[in-house]
Design a protein that fits this description.
Elements lengths: L12 H19 L12 E7 L3 E10 L2 E11 L9 H15 L1 H4 L7 E4 L5
Organism: Austropuccinia psidii MF-1
Pfam families: RT_RNaseH_2 (PF17919)
InterPro entries: DNA/RNA_pol_sf, RT_RNaseH_2
Length: 121
């Protein structure tokens, strides 16, 4: 600023280039899946994935032909589990997710699906 005036105009060509990206981001926020309340009478899906250092899971349900997330969680793999084979880490992720969401899964009306990333399981 020189004597209380801006040296550069606040509007630049960069703002015009960013605008489509901002519009896309705004739409993504508007249409993103919203966490729903658990309903034991809806079809339930447990999705898990494990990497070398962590595992994650999503509990979701199908309503109106759409999948709605119920809960998300992640967990760091313990030092003693770092040397597990990939399929063992994937199975560990499934067991961990079943343990944390046991209270939900015990009361559903029919069997639930477990989806994982690793094909040998």
């Amino acid at each position: 600023m020189i004597q209380g005036r801006l040296v550069h105009s606040p509007v630049s060509s960069r703002k015009i280039q960013v605008f489509p990206s901002m519009r896309k981001l705004e739409e993504a926020f508007k249409t993103a899946p919203i966490i729903s309340h658990f309903n034991p009478s809806l079809p339930t899906i447990l999705e898990t994935d494990a990497s070398d250092y962590a595992m994650g899971a999503v509990l979701s349900q199908v309503s109106d032909s759409e999948k709605h997330p119920i809960a998300f969680d992640s967990h760091e793999i313990l030092t003693s589990e770092l040397n597990y084979e990939v399929h063992d880490k994937e199975l560990l992720g499934i067991l961990w997710a079943l343990k944390i969401w046991r209270a939900f899964l015990l009361f559903i009306s029919y069997p639930f699906k477990v989806l994982t990333h690793h094909s040998p399981l």
